[in-house]
Amino acid sequence: MPAMTQNPPNLRPDLARAHIPELRRPGQPTIGMVSLGCPKALVDSERILTRLRAEGYAISADYNGADAVIVNTCGFLDSAKAESLEAIGEALQENGRVIVTGCLGAEPEYITGAHPKVLAVTGPHQYESVLDAVHGAVPPAPDPFVDLLPASSVSLTPRHYSYLKISEGCNHKCKFCIIPDMRGRLVSRPAHAIVREAEKLVAAGVKELLVISQDTSAYGLDRKHETERGHRAHIVDLARDLGSLGAWVRLHYVYPYPFVRDLIPLMAAHSESGGLVLPYLDIPFQHAHPDTLRRMARPAAAAKTLDEIAAWRAVCPEITLRSTFIVGYPGETEAEFQTLLDWLDEAQLDRVGAFQYENVKGARANDLPDHVAPEVKQDRFDRFMEKAQAISEAKLAAKVGQRLHVIVDEVDDEGATCRTKADAPEIDGNLFIDEGFEGLHPGDIVEVTVDEAGEYDLWGHR
Question: Which residues bind [4Fe-4S] cluster 1 (predicted)?
Fold first, then answer.
């Protein structure tokens, strides 16, 4: 039987790879997990598997070894919904006993209409409901001398990096998005709990912490930025606390609020001393024309973003800026799109992705007038990515001859696949070492000299 689908990299940016060394003991109930969607969903999958492991369940990486399979779905775009339904269908065909959870679980009739044989459907981050469904499908049978000991966390990423989710939900009301409807309003974790989790991860060998949420900049707002057990629930304070642990700290999904500028000195300090926070910001700008942003109901003031970017670079010239954009949003004119291209020319972002606008069931953008024709969306997408690629190629070419620190992700007979501080796993580029890589292991951080550059990747030697 084939191994379970785990986010093919050509479809999704976050390939989930289970790293579970335990062997199944005779008679032990076993659960499989297919984890789709964003890294935030991946963290949910890890939490579910960790709870199940503590209850005495084994975890299977293939359909044949599982008594039942959990499919953690994505429901943000129609294309993601289709992928989730396909994954559910595959799990039903290969295993037959399937429990569905995740964002698409917020629409149970949509799932059961396509796959009436699923055992249960639960919504996003409904951990107790998932566990109840598993108990009903595959009753636990723990060995009290082995299974009921406190379990270490199950990881779906390589052991040298880990996603660290700091909050759930979102308070924004962007017209193209239904995340607040599926996952609710902002709920921040206590800062001391996040730092404690990070300390455990670093003690277990994690070299890179990837901070994620729906809106990282808003962290702690619902808690009125309280201080508890010596840690303040504010993203700047949290970043400083995490940066003191000795691991790389990478910030994702940061809205460009004014106080983001307070993070930049921490990144500049990293460049100088090797501590604190990586000089990397993942900011969802989405567009650049003020009228388009107004129709999106975006919270950021686009007119000031170029000034903010210039100010960040003045403090930390090495900063890497990553963003995603939507092309073909309802009402987008050629002039508005050209403004986006001109903005990108001036902003010179390092890492850029784009999506063609899609209707999402329940999103207010569906009702906007003047939807853009599919062929126009495709043309604008191609033009946008051509410009972004040219910018990336030029920026990488400028790194030839530089000495950079990289983290090793994989080593095989061909060489070592690494990432610079400018590259997040699965979504950005790589640096490849194809000579003198003997003795390297995943998680090693080494210094290299860059020899060659491509459109998105680098090559170098130690």
Answer: 38, 74, 103
